[in-house]
């Protein structure tokens, strides 16, 4: 849905699913999932590691006290940008593998080889600018809102010496992820279209500004949020679960809240 323009106004969540199953069978619903799983581990690890390190450096410049919301936002933004910069070529591969036709690529390595041969190394960073501009508010808002909500719960329940349970962490993650998605989704849409457009032979490749103008002129402002619902259905539970795992791993490793 993200890559369909005004020529596919009839495409919605269910028709998109039916079309994918007709074209490539039930297995087509998991296209690109292998590389998605491959990239999510280093991406999450780098993001959370960078976030903790940047928070530590910010605290080192202060004379005690916790971080304020804007400081968490800065730490989250820098952490997200760092992780995305390192793993970005895998994002491009994931998009191409997800959108490929049946039989177009024999696998991840073949997809990478074809992109490199036909389009060069720069193709692996197509859409990097809108991605980075989008990840700054997304990661900043997501991590800042999550930790602010979690700390507010801890302060409110300090007398009970209770740790936030799974439901509390899931709730904080859901709210923070929703806020981050709403703030950054148009740039994520533009990034995905830029990643995907090179797969269509013979068509001119639009820049970030060109994509924005094309969407506005052909689809209007609502076009900037095309595919938001299925994206929420995917991202919110994934991000919320990752926060639960993150907090439990911190506890196992002895990292203080």
TrEMBL record:
Membrane protein topology class: Multi-pass membrane protein
The keyword Oxidoreductase is annotated on this UniProt entry: no
Record SUPFAM superfamilies: Mitochondrial carrier (SSF103506)
UniProt entry tagged with the keyword Phosphoprotein: no
Record GO cellular component, one term: mitochondrial inner membrane
Transmembrane segments: none
InterPro entries attached to this UniProt entry: MCP, MCP_dom_sf, MCP_transmembrane
Biological process terms in GO annotation: transmembrane transport
Solcar repeat boundaries on the chain: 1-57, 67-152, 164-252
UniProt keyword list: Membrane, Mitochondrion, Mitochondrion inner membrane, Repeat, Transmembrane, Transmembrane helix, Transport
Primary location recorded for the protein, binned into one broad class: mitochondrion
Subcellular localization, as worded in the UniProt entry: Mitochondrion inner membrane
Family of this protein: Belongs to the mitochondrial carrier (TC 2.A.29) family.
Protein name: Calcium-binding mitochondrial carrier protein SCaMC-3-like
Natural source organism: Pogonophryne albipinna
């Amino acid at each position: 849905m993200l890559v369909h323009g005004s020529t596919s106004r009839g495409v919605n969540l269910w028709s998109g699913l039916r079309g994918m199953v007709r074209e490539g069978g039930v297995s087509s619903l998991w296209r690109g999932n292998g590389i998605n799983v491959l990239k999510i581990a280093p991406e999450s690890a780098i993001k959370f590691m960078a976030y903790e390190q940047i928070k530590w450096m910010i605290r080192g410049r202060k004379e005690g006290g916790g971080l304020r919301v804007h400081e968490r936002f800065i730490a989250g933004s820098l952490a997200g940008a760092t992780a995305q910069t390192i793993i970005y070529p895998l994002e491009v591969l994931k998009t191409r593998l997800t959108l490929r036709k049946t039989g177009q690529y024999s696998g991840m390595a073949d997809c990478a080889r074809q992109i490199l041969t036909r389009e060069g190394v720069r193709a692996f960073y197509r859409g990097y600018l809108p991605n980075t501009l989008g990840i700054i508010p997304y990661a900043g808002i997501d991590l800042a809102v999550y930790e602010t909500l979690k700390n507010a719960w801890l302060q409110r329940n300090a007398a009970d010496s209770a740790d936030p349970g799974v439901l509390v962490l899931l709730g904080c993650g859901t709210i923070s992820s929703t806020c981050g998605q709403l703030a950054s989704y148009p740039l994520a849409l533009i990034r995905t279209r830029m990643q995907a457009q090179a797969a269509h032979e013979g068509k001119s490749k639009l820049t970030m500004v060109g994509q924005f103008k094309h969407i506005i002129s052909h689809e209007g402002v609502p076009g900037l949020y095309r595919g938001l619902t299925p994206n929420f259905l995917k991202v919110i539970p994934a991000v919320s679960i990752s926060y639960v795992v993150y907090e439990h791993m911190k506890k196992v490793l002895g990292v203080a809240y």
